[in-house]
Amino acid sequence: MELQFPDVSQLRFSSSCSFLTFFVSSDTPRRPAKKAKPPFLLVNSEKRNSDALKGLQKEANKDLSRILRTEAAVKGIEKKANSKTARNLWPKAVLEALDDAIRNNQWESALKIFGLLRKQHWYQPRCQTYTKLLMMLGKCRQPKQASLLFEFMLSEGLKPTVDVYTSLVSAYGLSGLLDEAFRTLDDMKSVSDCKPDVYTYSILIKCCTKLHRFDLIDHILTEMSYLGIRCCTVTYNTIIDGYGKAEMFELMESSLMDMIENSECLPDIYTLNSFIWAYGNAGQIEKMEEWYDEFQHMGITPDIKTFNILIRSYGKAGMYEKMGMVLEFMRKRFFSPTIVTFNIVIEMFGKGGNIKQMEHFFQVMKHQGLKPNSITYCSLISGYTKAGLIKRVDSIMRQVENSDVVLDTPFFNCAINAYGQSGDVKKMEEIFLTMKERKCKPDSITFATMIEVYNAHGKAKASQKLEMQLYDRNKNSDMEGQESRSQKPNMTWTLEMDNYLIEALVQQVHLGNKIDKLRALLSWNDQTHTIDVEPEVWNSYVEITLMMIVRLPHPQMTLMMKLEILHYDQEQ
């Protein structure tokens, strides 16, 4: 039976639910229920009262208005931050704008607003504010800014708390500076009333898993045991999630058993989501479904993120009928789809070449009052590019121009790739200029895509110019990384190391597991222990190598690899 979806014109509000009934049309034949086997998707829920349902009908419009107000407020306060006379602003406006910038990881805006906050006559320094800023800078991979902010805090006479130190550990660790993170941990131990707690160690473990330094986890757990710090649910979930993302399934399941044996820590919804994401991302759908059932028997009910993971997993596996079943189940259980849900559905149909359904859900999304973001438009452009519909890419670009959506580098990369594949070099160059005008920094994907297009069209001079820009950018990045830690030796990149990395990438692409193996190469230095290269330096050379890859005669290592990396980064 083919899964049917209604036209947008058939959308209507249901009298018994709070959102548009659109997943399955009313004339779709229903299968009789089988009593012998329970349904795969099972959740215990109570019927919502009518007042709650009525209140939900206006949620979408309220959310859209709130988003627009928030963006305008942040921009307004940011403009005042450049003024030298704005010293008596309304506290609520400044603090709310700062919170919104932090929540959206707009680190440059947040620091500007924080600078304005410090100028106010009513300003009083608080450790809590610094903690939020440091956590944000860690997520944005800004260790240098985090270090400066910490110095600012000390200059204001504040005494760092456990939360402040923990945030600083996170900022260093998530940026790849594990040595600095462990050094900060040692500083904490030297302060009598600021000892690291279980959450400090949990964040340190998270940093290790993201950098594939799984060899350090046992060392951290041993130190925790020595200090009498017991693992909590967050600690176990962090370890499980790290092993799952690295496809180390045996260790992931072993950690779950340790968690269950610890009577103080029980699996929760985060454990469930980590398990089904790990198996679903690896394409092991049967294992994903088995563990979904296991967690159901434990009494753990799914949430909206669980369903998003299931939709994504089924979509990647090309199991669109099961994807539709999850959507229908959500509708019946009053789980309103979020923008993340729609983005996943749009992306999956686009990758599968089903442009009709991709466009359908994009229209449904807008009818529900959900504001498309850069990820939405990026998925649409990728879908149209794959289908060779470049004129529809033009339509999307016009929509973006007439909206206030915040565009990012991945969006422009998709647009540049679309016009590059179609052979419209002039339009590609216009997008590149617009990207710079919007202050979106080009990355290795941007340069690699344009260099390949130029080479394909015989424009050697333009290609060489971009190569020099990329070289200068990475050179400046290397110098900044060396300045921030001048005590480390200055390393020299050799031709042999270039050859090693290229050969390793070629080999791993032929093995098929492109993304995880590419990411794993970032820890090559730690595994071989033959040379000491700073993380920022190593990352920049990986970017240079990606640029070099497009010149190699390996068809598997061209645009498909770059787009896979792009989609992988967006999902994270």
Task: Write structural notes for this entry.
Helix content is 67%, strand content 0%. Among the domains are: 302-371, no CATH class; 473-482 and 491-571, no CATH class. It is built from 29 helices and no strands.
**Major β-sheet, in short?**
none
Using the CA coordinates, give the radius of gyration.
25 Å
Query: Judging from the principal axes of the Cα atoms, what is the shape?
Result: globular
Task: Specify the oligomeric state.
Answer: single chain
The end-to-end distance, rounded to whole angstroms, is: 34 Å
Q: How would you classify the helix and strand content by structural class? A: mainly alpha
Number of helix segments?
A: 29
The count of strands amounts to 0
Proportion of helical residues: 55-70%
**Proportion in β-strands:** under 5%
User: What is the average of the pLDDT values?
Assistant: 77
Write down the secondary-structure element order. HHHHHHHHHHHHHHHHHHHHHHHHHHHHH
The low-pLDDT segments are 1-40, 42-69, 484-534, 547-570
InterPro entries: PPR5-like, PPR_rpt, TPR-like_helical_dom_sf
Keywords: Repeat
Pfam families: PPR, PPR_2
PPR repeats: 126-160, 161-191, 197-231, 268-302, 303-337, 338-372, 373-407, 408-442
